[in-house]
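Service request form, structural biology core

Requester: graduate student, group of Dr. S.
Request type: structure prediction, single chain
Budget code: on file
Notes: please return the result as structure tokens.

Sequence provided:
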Amino acid sequence: MIRIGIIGCGTIGSAIAQAVQKKFSRFARLACISDINPDQIKKIRQKLKQARLKAQTLSKLIQQVDLVIETASVGAAEEAIPQALKNGKDILVLSVGGVLRIKNLTALLARSKGRVYIPSGAVAGIDSVLAAKTGRIQSVRITTRKPLKSLKSAPYFLNHGFDPRRIQKSTLIFKGNVLKAIRYFPENINVAATLSLAGIGPQKTQVQIFTSPTFRYNQHEIEVKGRFGRMVSQVTNFPSQNNPKTSVLAIGSAIAALEKIFSRFRVGT
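Core staff response, request fulfilled:
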């Protein structure tokens, strides 16, 4: 049995915990959880009907499990990944922007028995980008459209002294590379980080973000050009009812990644 620890007990963490309990009980068990908010811990215990489920600090959780699942924040991912690798543990990362903040990741991986897993997230086409990377990719661009209410708390508005209430229609609010996008929208654009890691890197991968109070869904369009040809994918995601910053497909992608980890029969790149 693989012992699993989940960091972050919000929308995605709760969904994964339920999947471990109901879908993967033959392979794994949820050993402990971690969250800075005691209310979130209480909620997940109630959902799972496990009043005695252990709550640990991030560091202790990593020491006590075989597979760490991070669903908390970019900062939590930045802290958890090095610790997991130094302890020889595998880690599934949802806050992919945190991966880009770890400058010595290659060296950490070389010295560790642990592995880092990154699910595709709420986009389509990561498999094609990985295939294209075996040749030459010329350009990668992701255009994201999100409801204004899911972006209001982003550091971008504070740093630029821009009041989001002034936005009344579809507006291009950001254009730049992935490194800048993650800095200004750490909770909203992890799919761009995933795309950059699959392809030509965070400096060369370009991001455009549109928002509007009239947008109802999260939409991501990817365009890749290279020697293979041209690939365009577009996904319109329903936001989670519990958290508008999270797409339903992102939750499904995390569970599908777990299924791939546990399975001996794997489909896709």
